[in-house]
Fold:
Amino acid sequence: MKMKKQIWVVDFGSQYTQLIIRKSRELGHSAELMTLDDCREAFMKGETPKCLVLSGGPQSVFEDQTDYSFIFDQIELPVLGICYGMQLLGKYFGGVVEKGLIGEYGNADVAFSPGEEISGVPAKFSVWMSHSDHVKVLPKSFRPLLISHNQLLAGMIHKERPLLGFQFHPEVEHSHFGKNLLSYFYEKVAELKKDWSSKEMLNESLDIVRKTLGAEKEPNVLCAFSGGVDSLVAATLASKITNEKMHCFFVDNGLLRLQDYQHIELLKKNTYLKIEIIDAKHIFLDALKGLQEPEAKRKMIGKKFIEVFESKVHEYESRHGIKFTHLLQGTLYPDVIESISPHLKGGKSVTIKSHHNVGGLPERMKLKLLEPLRNLFKDEVRAMGLHLGLHHDWVYRHPFPGPGLGVRILGEINTDAIRIVQHSDQILYEELKNQNYYQATWQAFTVFLPVKTVGVKGDERAYENALVVRMVNSSDGMTAEWTRMPYEFLDLVSRRITNEVKGVTRVVYDITSKPPGTIEWE
Ligand code: XMP
Structure:
């Protein structure tokens, strides 16, 4: 389902393209990603955006034989060219682009050309560069706007038409005043009105639900509910349209944290969602007996999830005399973007870990997909959650992996190891909340090691397990830094765990960043 946004960001393969969309939306303007082919096709049908952004990209304009007249012949259309996009503007309008020998990478200072200024931006500031080619000779129809400290053209603006180019990346955090520069283009050059806020996001998402379900005579929506941010917001939103026809199933695989049980009870009491808890603890534990190898454990948890879910849902259908038509999924915009432009995926081409998801379900159960969050970023989902009246703590929970504590117990999973991880995780969680550190870290958990170590408890020799505390900071889980927690906090947690959790004599803090370590231990 295509939603038309004010700004189309044409992707040439820059690693920062997603950021252009996010920053534009943060500035209050709806924006979406387009491939060049989609853009051309839309233009041929007479559909145009309010403005276009041409992203950066790894290629060189010297190899690019595309005829861009379908864009640049639209005299009224505002276009912002970023990095590669600026070089395309330079080449098309008769300037000279030069193959770079040295290039500019990382931070660089830029200054306004004489007589130029943009409100709120100082005469000289630092930006993020990542290019080797550059516009050497300015096209005649343009004025120079910014010059880098290497005396290279860093920004140019057309003398009459709404066309602007930046050689650097205003969308990147390292570019100071980047938001002012983008906002200058949207508000002053393109003269856009703001059209993106929680209210618009909500309307658009509700529209997806209405349109997807509209075609069905008797829609019944099924949700694999984890209680995490995405499934909670998606379910709350969909239930506004479906009312009674929305059914959430929460699978208790026995590998949940104590905070998850508390959370689900809270949601049952304090929301209108119909949540059905499937107690499948013993099924998972039996299936995991004897398994040690991380991938084997992950695969078994994924396989059992699908089996249990499917059979319980069929049971529920016969009991209630209904037939499910749709599966609600919390797919987000980055996943959609990845499928449009695979090079934006940001990494992993080899399987590091087989991720647990419900991907196999729709085909097996012949369900259509309902994805109300497919046009939103995670921070937008959170904002919408708040707008829908969900509690702040519910939409700002740390991420928790699908296979749960299964990836935090090394070696064979048994009830004693589960007890140790659950109890220690609860202590860590309580102290993060008590000491007001919960939002100071992105993810925090404990890991059970099948390793015994000598200690002394009450004058007696103890020979018990070692336990890891891991806390990381990250923005998307792709890379991570271990969290620099105050020693006092680590000390408090370590003391509580060794005193209160039976079977633990030693606590260690994981100081590995990602890469090379992954966030989870398995
Ligand atoms: P890794 O361990 O790959 O984790 O560095 C990155 C982020 O992904 C989470 N994670 C998962 N999430 N299903 C999920 O939904 C999974 O199978 C899975 N494995 C890891 C992990 O908790 C971290 O936030």
Q: What stands out?
A: The CA atoms of residues 353 and 434 lie 34 Å apart. DSSP finds 16 helices and 20 strands in the chain. Residues 353, 355-356, 399, 401-403, 443, 477, 514, 518-520 surround xanthosine-5'-monophosphate (CB under 6 Å). The longest strand covers residues 443-457.
